[in-house]
Design a protein that fits this description.
Blueprint: E1 3-6, E2 12-19, H1 31-41, H2 54-66, H3 70-79, H4 81-84, H5 96-109, E3 114-121, E4 124-131, H6 146-157, E5 166-170, H7 176-183, E6 188-193, H8 196-208, E7 216-220, H9 227-234, E8 239-243, H10 252-262, E9 270-275, H11 284-293, E10 296-303, E11 308-314
Parallel strand pairs: 5-6, 5-8, 6-7, 8-9
Antiparallel strand pairs: 1-2, 2-3, 3-4, 9-11, 10-11
Length: about 350
């Protein structure tokens, strides 16, 4: 694929999705085109034309669907809504492998599958596995959301302040921003989240990016737990990244406290926070107030109707520092608008 991701505010983002891995599709064909073509076959009671067996047809559909974004596959399914119900007949097969492939195909088309793509940010391709959102809070971390795409874009613009630095990502989900930092030359990267299933996805993505394995680790972090013990185990960091980590009033202050605890002493330490869905997001004011109380100073803030992003640095002796105009983070460009 070669589609451009969209920011939550509708602005075009320099994030591209490409096919990843091997499947039954030809090198010349876009995987989503293969999905459309195989779904079209359902009108003719597959297999048809290519002389594929049902199992081969299903395998090609699944292989292509896993290389596409969740949204693209769901759009394809919606376009062929009258035909996709025909997949159910494969679930009645006596062949176990055919049933497994049919189940995987139904899950992919329903937005509940596993999607393996390469996301390219700042000219660097990061192999990412995502899983469908099942509509409950514990599956929110299964996908790369627009705020994580924007955070990755900011990291790409500030690569000179990433290289050689210790980086931690809070609420990492699949881990795109942190993995990009590893590709950008970070000294070390720690991906953190709370849910075990999400941490498994993050680990699989580290493995899928072998160039990052030497510097990237994954750890569980409970924002309301013993953060001091976490710091004793893992140390402090030069760059703290957080996308969509504030989403209710109850724990907003805890997020600010975790960020402050993980930031290394010194004026150059930075926290980069991006939040989407401004209209429906709760806890933003509490997060800002708690950050101020913790001697964190906002050196750059950019807001659109739906997204907010902050650059936070430590105050010096309780006084906000004068940020040099040469600091890359403070000079990152806002999202482009269409």
């Amino acid at each position: 694929m070669a589609t451009t991701g969209q920011g939550s505010a509708g602005g075009a983002m320099a994030v591209h999705v490409a096919d990843a891995g091997q499947g039954g599709t030809s090198d010349a064909e876009d995987p989503i085109e293969t999905v459309h073509r195989r779904l079209y076959d359902l009108k003719w009671h597959v297999p048809r034309g290519d002389r594929l067996t049902p199992k081969q047809w299903l395998a090609e559909l699944v292989a292509a669907g896993e290389q596409c974004s969740c949204g693209d596959v769901q759009a394809a399914a919606h376009a062929g809504e009258g035909e996709t119900s025909s997949l159910v007949r494969f679930l009645k097969s006596d062949d176990v492998e055919t049933v497994e492939l049919a189940s995987a195909a139904v899950a992919l088309l329903a937005g509940q599958g596993t999607y393996r793509t390469t996301l390219t940010v700042a000219g660097i391709g990061v192999r990412i596995t995502q899983r469908g959102f099942a509509g409950s809070g514990d599956t929110l971390g299964n996908q790369v959301w627009p705020s994580a795409l924007r955070l990755s874009e900011l990291c790409g613009q500030a690569r000179d302040e990433i290289s050689g630095k210790r980086v931690v990502e809070l609420g990492c989900g699949p881990g795109l921003p942190g993995l990009l930092c590893a590709h950008l030359g970070a000294l070390s990267v720690l991906l953190t989240d709370f849910e075990d299933a999400v941490l498994d996805i993050a680990r699989s993505n580290v493995t899928a990016n072998p160039d990052t394995c030497a510097v990237t680790a994954v750890a569980r972090l409970d924002w309301t737990g013993d953060v001091a013990a976490f710091v004793r185990d893992h140390g402090v960091f030069d760059v703290v990244l957080a996308a969509d980590c504030v989403y209710n009033s109850e724990h907003a202050a805890a997020v600010a406290q975790v960020i402050a605890a993980l930031m290394a002493p010194g004026e150059e330490t930075v926290a980069v926070v991006v939040l989407g869905d401004r209209k429906g997001r709760r806890g933003v004011e509490q997060f800002e107030s708690a950050s101020t109380d913790l001697n964190l100073h906002v050196t750059r803030k950019h807001e659109t109707t739906e997204q907010s992003e902050w650059i936070l640095r430590r105050c010096v002796d309780g006084i906000p520092r004068e940020t040099p105009t040469t600091c890359t983070w403070e000079n990152t460009q806002p999202p482009q608008t269409q």
